[in-house]
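Hi C.,

You asked whether I'd gotten around to modeling the 276-residue construct. I have! Everything is below, sequence then structure, no commentary in between.
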Amino acid sequence: MSVELRPLADGDAGWLAELHNRAFADYPVPAVLDASSLAFYMDETDVRPELSFAAHVDGRPASFCLGAIRGRTASIRGEGTVPLLRRRGLGDRALMATLDALGAAGARTVGLEVLDGNQAARRLYERRGFEVRRRLLGHTLRRPPRLGLLDRRKYRLAQIDPDEALDRLARWGWSDAPWQLQPRSLAHLPALAMGDRAVVIGRRRGRRFWLYALAVDPAARGAGVGRTTLAALNTEWIAVPALVPEEWAPLHAFLRRLGAEPDAFAQWEMTRPLGE
């Protein structure tokens, strides 16, 4: 078996998406991406192809690791190996090459998320110096609140400039977020506002909505503004990805009051130092 490590390059999204889907084919949580979706994800999370590596076995891509960097902080935004070639050290080699490149680029800390229950991956990361920082939770709201006909005319969401939405998040207490919920990531997503009292950021697909951020002006809290904002989305299903820190207790309590169910799978955020 001949193994070669190569950095990624612009334009690799096609074969990388195919490798990603093969690597996650037996994953407990579905993770299927086409080339355009993967390229968008890499862009929004600041993945740097030249700091990311793939292991090629006998000339064919078999394992990958995506490295992202923001100033002196880095993140592993995805790693996987095709099932038939696991437990041969390919993931470890791609990971270490990526960590070395991130450190050489100036990062001094690096983080990642690993699915609760993926013990093989967690053991690999622990061997390489990662330690658990916190647990990240997700929710599914299968019956979101709805507005009556009169309220639909009264309460409307309007599209808002992403910079204004992020400014509100910062002023209203959005801090110490994991990588995908940080402002640099959220800036790529559509933002809506309920007047000057609430902001919501996420992706709509048909009658379903993936919620990445919801914030209410502290002066308006306790008056049902958050519930009204979600009701104004007028959607049949809301998903909150497993990215919300467990210590964000008020947000979890709010979702539970609306009838949201916790996701079956949580994630662990892990970190380690890089460089000196």
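If it helps when you're writing up: The domain at 3-107 is CATH 3.40.630.30 (Aminopeptidase).

Thanks,
B.
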